[in-house]
Amino acid sequence: MRRKHIALLMVAVISLVLAVALGGCASEDSGKLSVVTSTSLIAQIVERVGSDSVEVVNIIPPAQCPGHFDVSPGDIQKLAEADIFFMHGWQGEQFTQDLIASADNPDLNTVVINIMGNWMTPPIQTQAIDMVAGILSEADAENSAVYLESAEQMKSSIQSKGAEVKQRLEDAGVSSVNVLCADQQAGFVQWAGFNAVATFGRPEDMTPQIVKEMVDQGRAGGVTLVIDNVQSGQDAGAGIAEELGSARVILSNFPGCYEGTDTWEETIDYNVALLLDAISK
């Protein structure tokens, strides 16, 4: 912890120097709300709900786990100039409190969207859209009607896509497919209709004993598919799948992780295509 605090202090000093040096090159105020998001899950909602009235900058890359993220001087500068900072409030985002303090922005409105559940499921996604639209409307009442209309359009798209992919999964008979999955994918796997026999953690947690236990449960439960999560460590289930001789897929919990998956709809399509392809072989 001491090393991390020293690193944050150094980052803050560097950031201050850069801010002074580049102050004369700052662009004129666009008149739009300046929003920073902790993850692409929130960013893609703010971009679509905010439309042309909001400028969005995301911090954590889509392929990276929030719990293994290191701040940079640029991240501090983003918050120093922002109006709103949206974050999840997950345990993996503990770095954010030091980041907010280092930004030293008394006008920054920090909003925690603390929704329990997997954000790749339609119910959680629609809850988040409503929360984002409400906050943007409070911060910019003049464009409230635009935000609320965009939110309704996005929720309609989410619900339509959710119903479509759920039907595809049901038609494929996924309820009879027994799986082992990364714990970060458990909520989505359950919503999708698979029968999750057990869940497993990150690669660093996979001791030989735990792998053996997972393999034993997989054999006893007739598991034919192992589902990994790219952000928490895509190889966590590799050894289990090899021992079981089962198929394995690596899903993403964040839009933008793979090419052509910038939105929630594109990401769920990508994930479901992987799943359907795996169980069809």
Brief rundown of the structure:
This protein is of the alpha/beta class and 281 residues long.
Structure description:
The radius of gyration is 21 Å and the shape is globular. The strands form 2 sheets. A 4-stranded parallel beta sheet has the order 2-1-3-4, covered by helices on one side. The chain has a 4-stranded parallel beta sheet with strand order 6-5-7-8, with helices on both faces. The protein has 2 domains: 2-162, Rossmann fold (3-Layer(aba) Sandwich), CATH 3.40.50; 172-280, 3-Layer(aba) Sandwich (Rossmann fold). By secondary structure, the chain is α/β, with parallel strands linked by helices. It is built from 11 helices and 8 strands.
